[in-house]
Amino acid sequence: MFETWLFYALGAVLLVSGLLVITARNPVHGVLFLVLAFFTAAGIWLLLRAEFLAIALVVVYVGAVMVLFLFVVMMLDINLERVREGFWRNLPLALVVGGIMVIEMAAVLANRTFGAGARQLPAGYSNTKELGRVLYTQYAYAFEIAAVVLLVAIIAAIALTLRKRKDSRSQDPSAQVRVRRQDRVELVSMRSETDK
């Protein structure tokens, strides 16, 4: 009963935070809601006893999102004084999001005490091994299609952002290979200067 209630609560928080990611006008708020969505999804994975997926979701996605956001802030040449001024304005929302994450993780961990007992698993069972077996046997084609879609998305993102600039320097390997020794070095005879 407690586990079912917790699943629906985490699902509701996940849906609301995902909606707020899309509708947030402030990029800082959007990233905070996205981090909340990832933590909530990790809580759902923990309820499903898939600890590896939960840890991977938090480490990879939360870490990647925060690093990506940091690079975007640095590349956009945002006035850091205004960002520091907005720290105190964004602090209440950050505390609310962080508090919700702490409550979710505490509720998932308390499930062992208040909730139903864990299902009995055979000795030596590894959910990571089971995940790999299912992923590479039953869902192998879907996994490969997802990999191709991600590759196409990466290539499209690079192609869309690639611009030719006048001030950029590049090397032409074919021109470097065609160069002859006579073209590279020129010996100039100069008259020597005499001391006065």
Protein topology:
Layout: H1 2-23, H2 27-47, H3 51-75, H4 80-114, H5 127-137, H6 140-161, H7 173-178, H8 181-184
Please summarize what this structure is.
This protein has about 200 residues and is mainly α. About 75% of the residues lie in helices and about 0% in strands. It contains 8 helices and no strands.
Give an overview of the whole structure:
The chain is an all-alpha fold and 196 residues long. The chain has eight helices and no strands. It has helices spanning 2-23, 27-47, 51-75, 80-114, 127-137, 140-161, 173-178, 181-184. Helix 1 (2-23) runs antiparallel to helix 2. The longest helix has 35 residues, at 80-114. The model has no long low-confidence stretch (mean pLDDT 78).
Considering the chains and any ligands shown, give keywords for the structure.
mainly alpha; 196 residues; elongated; 2 domains
